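User: Small ask, check this?
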Amino acid sequence: MALTPAETAPAQPPPEWEAAAVVDARDLPCPQPLLALRRALGAYEAGTLLCVLATDEASWRDFHSFAALSGRTLLRAERRNDTFLYWLYAGK
């Protein structure tokens, strides 16, 4: 039985969530959190893990839509109390 590439390739370590560069977009109204993300994607070195903080309720929909439409992977999204956290990798 042959192994698939996923079985033979070394596993990629999981991201270090707490080591992410923080983009603080709290208290910014829609669409400002998404615009802060877009600026950060180009400002940081490709491959840098970013964590965007937002308090705008619409950011949940915006970030998921952005990921789907742009082809970028939204690595993780969660809500902690009144703050939404979104993790993506920087780069163009």
In short: The first strand starts at residue 21 and ends at 25. Residues 18-89 form a domain with the Translation Initiation Factor IF3 fold (CATH 3.30.110.40). The chain is about 30% helix and 25% strand.
